Amino acid sequence: MNDGYKEVQFGPKTIEAPENWEVNKLGNICKKVTDGTHETPPTQESGYPFITARHITSGKIDFESCLYLEKEDHIKNINRCKPERGDILFTHIGTIGEVVKVETNKEFSIKNIALLKPKEKTCSEFLKYILEGRIVQGFIKRVTQGGVQNYLGLNTISSIRIPIPPLPKQRRIAEILSTVDDAIQKTDEVIEKAERLKKGLMQDLLTKGIGHDEFKEVQIGPETVEIPDIWDVKKLKNISDVRASNVNKKSKEEEKPVKLCNYLDVYNNEYIENDMDFMEATAKNREIERFTIEKDDVIITKDSETPDDIAVPAVVIDDLENVLCGYHLTLLKPDKNKINGIFLSKVLQSSPIKNEFCRLAQGLTRYGLNVPSIENALIFVPPLDEQIRIVKILEKIDQKIRTEERVKRNLKELKKGLMQDLLTGKVRVNI
C-alpha cells in the first residue's frame, strides 16, 4: 500500500484512497434519501412539471418535453418528496444511474427517481460526480445484473459506500470537473446552433434549390411539393442499384473473413469513414460480390421500431477495404451520371421523402420497408452541377458539426480520466 493511502473495499473490489478521506454510506452523508411517486397521476399540458426518469439525461432535467400536474396532485407528491436547489436526482427504476443536480428554484414533482439531500459537510456538486463515477456505476452494474426489471431500492442506495475528502477538497474537485463540463456544454451549444442552421438550409436547398424563379408541383405520395421547374423526379431504382442486404453477423469457417457495416453504424453516423470500428465476421463469395461497400454508396436502415424512424441514410466518403453492408440495411449504388452520392443521402432526409417512407413502412411492433417500396420511392433530381453546389454548402456546415463533435468526444475522455484520478485521490488537489 502506498504511503498516505488506505485500502477500501467496494463489494469485490479494493481501491486505495488517501488516509484523510472518510469512507461513508450515502445515507450518512445525506439528510434524506427518498424517492418520488411510483404512480402516474392524471397529466395535462400546463401546470406543475412532472419529471420521470426519461427526463433525466446527459446531466440535465428536460423540462421542455415533460407533462404537467394540476396543483392538488403536485402538492400530494411534494409532500412525499420535494426537490430543491442543490439536491441530487438519481434514477433508480428502469434506467438506473442517471444523475443530475437540481439547479432551479421552480417547483416540480418526480416519479421513479431517487432524491438525495446532502448534509452541510457534503458538496452536492462533488456528490453528483461521485455518483457518476466508476465506483458507484460499477456497483450499480453488479447489483442489478440479471434482474427482470432494473431496480435499485432506497436501502441499497443509502448503503452505497463512497470515499469522500474534507469539504474544501470536495469543492476544489467539483470546481475542476465543472470547468470541463462547462466546456462540454459550450460545445453542445455550438453543435445545436449549427444543427438548427443545417436543418433550415436543407429544407430550402433540397426543395427550392439555388437561384430558381420558376417552380412546378409534384406529387410525393399524398403530399404535393413545389420544386424548381428544371428538376426531375425519378424512382430510386432509376438512379441507383437497390440491394437489400442479407449478410448476418455470424462467422463460419468455410466463409471468407470480412468486416460489417451494421445498423447502428448507419443510424448513428451521416458519413461512413475508414476509421470506424467495423465488426469482424465472414461472408460467402456471392455476398462479398454483391454487398461490398464502395466510396459514394449510400446505405439506409430498412427496419425500425417506429415508422417515423426508418430509411435513415449514411453515405460512404472513404475508400473502404473489405467492408460489407450488414443485415437490416439496404445498399444504394448511385448511377454517378445521374446523381451524386452525398446529394442522394441528403435528399433522402428531406421531409417529403421521409414522410413517404414513413407511410410505406409496414408492421405492428416492428416496421420494415420492402424492396419495391424502396425502389419505387420518388426522389428529387436536380442537374448534376446543382447537386454538387448544394452538397458543397451542406458539407461546410457538416464539417463544422463533425469538428465540434470531435472536440466534445475529447473533452468527455478528459473528464473520464480526471474523474478516475480525482474521485479516488490518485491525484491530489491543492486548496
Tell me what you see in this structure.
This protein is an alpha+beta fold and 431 residues long. The protein folds into 3 domains: 26-163, DNA methylase specificity domains (Adenine-n6-DNA-methyltransferase TaqI, Chain A, domain 2, Alpha-Beta Complex); 165-209 and 383-431, Orthogonal Bundle (Helix Hairpins), CATH 1.10.287; 211-381, DNA methylase specificity domains (Adenine-n6-DNA-methyltransferase TaqI, Chain A, domain 2). The protein has 12 helices and 28 strands. The protein has helices at residues 26-29, 71-80, 124-132, 134-144, 154-159, 167-208, 263-267, 285-291, 341-347, 351-360, 371-375, 384-422, and strands at residues 5-10, 13-18, 22-25, 30-35, 48-51, 56-57, 60-61, 67-69, 88-93, 95-101, 109-110, 113-118, 161-164, 215-220, 223-228, 232-235, 240-244, 256-261, 271-272, 279-283, 298-301, 303-304, 313-316, 323-325, 329-334, 362-363, 367-368, 378-381. The chain has a 5-stranded mixed sheet with strand order 17-25-21-23-19. A 4-stranded antiparallel sheet has the order 4-12-9-10. A hairpin with a 2-residue loop joins strand 6 and strand 7 (60-61). Helix 3 (124-132) crosses helix 6 (167-208) and helix 6 packs antiparallel against helix 12 (384-422). It is globular and about 70 Å long. 34% of the residues are buried. The mean pLDDT is 93.
